[in-house]
Structure prediction request, 75 residues.
Amino acid sequence: MPRLPDWLRELFKPRSDPQLRQARALLSAIDAGGMPLNPARINEIARNFGLEVSGKAPVSDTIRRIRAAVGRASA
Prediction:
């Protein structure tokens, strides 16, 4: 059986616990009524979770994408 390229294997690699925990903590804080004050930190969490994020993207869109990615990782 041929070996998959590294970039393709990365797509299917399970998320590490610290990245998933960090994203869940962010979403829990937001759901509890917290307002993210640092968009750069939100983007960093998204990138650590494997999402591509534009610096121009609205924070609300980035949070929506993080929420969807956490849902996929938890399923």
About this structure: Residues 16-74 form one domain.
